[in-house]
Amino acid sequence: MEKQLTAIVTGGNAGLGYATAKKLCDNGIITYVNGRNGEKTKNACEELGENARPFILDLNNLKEIPAAIENIAKEAGSVDILVNNAGINMKKELLEVTDEEFQSILHTNVTSVFVMTREVSKYMKKQNSGSIINISSMAAQYGIPKVIAYSASKTAVEGMTRAMAVDLAQFGIRVNCIAPGFIKTNMSSKALDSEPERKQKVLSRTPMGKLGEPSDVADAVYYFATSESKFTTGTILPIDGGNSIGF
Fold it and tell me: pLDDT tens, 166-180?
């Protein structure tokens, strides 16, 4: 009998993180669902069923991450999969973004991803196996207006993915990255429905002519999380209906 795998999904109580946690839970993987909001995270775990475990922590509190990961590793016996999905965005004209705002986005989207990866990798190294999946964005692939800090952070995540993959391969740990395009979530639907022109632009440059589903991203995470992708590391996979190559 194969051992039961354990995963951690950051920002797992809503949106793409929730869809990812659902895919993992539905496939028999014990999944620690991370969120800042205790009630929201516990409710998500109830919906996700018996394989979900709430992991309540604001990842901006970097100093608390090592002990939290140690607790999960002790309780679960191993950590096999880490999905670095938590992230924040801010729309603002470049000339108006303050130093504090810029640093805040980088702190959440880059530094906490690094700290989570470093701490989880210590346990993956002991078992000589593991898969880490970072979530990037189309903002790392093109110039999108009014998201300077977010674009910088997601470009950093893609660079870190390659560096992590090279550093960690010797320990049997694979690191890959997914760059979602325009996916139907509550957040994106609100944004696009309020700007019909932008929605038309998005769809017209997406060869497949539609928005993606959260499950499309979850399916790609599952591929990277399992042995199906055992000879793949350091890659960035766009899940975008061809948006990044559409002209």
Answer: 999 999 999 999 999
Q: For residue 75, what pLDDT is reported?
A: 97
Q: What is the residue type of 45?
A: C
State the burial class of residue 53 (Cβ atoms within 10 Å of its Cβ: 0-12, 13-18, 19+): buried
Supply the residues annotated as catalytic.
150
Q: Do 34 and 7 contact (CB within 8 A), yes or no? A: no
For the beta sheet containing 236-239, the strands, ordered from the edge strand earlier in sequence to the opposite edge, are 52-56, 30-35, 6-9, 81-84, 130-135, 173-180, 236-239
Residue with tokens 């999108």: 144
pTM over 0.90: yes
Give the residue from 92, 120, 97, 113 showing the smallest Cα distance to 156.
113
The full set of domain ranges for the chain reads: 6-183+213-239
The secondary structure of the chain in percent helix, strand, coil, rounded to multiples of 5, reads 50, 15, 30
Question: Which amino acid belongs to residue 157?
Answer: V
Retrieve residue 106's tokens: 């980088």
Q: What does the block give as tokens for 181?
A: 């395009």
pLDDT, tens digit, 9 for 90 and up, residues 88-103: 999 999 999 999 999 9
Tell me the fold of 6-183+213-239: Rossmann fold (3.40.50)
- For 142-163, the pLDDT digits (tens) are 999 999 999 999 999 999 999 9
Q: Label residue 59 exposed, middle or buried (CB < 10 Å: 0-12, 13-18, 19+).
A: buried
What's the Cα-to-Cα distance from 54 to each of 11, 13, 33, 198, 227, rounded to whole Å? 11, 9, 5, 37, 26
Regions in the chain scoring below 70 on pLDDT = 1-2
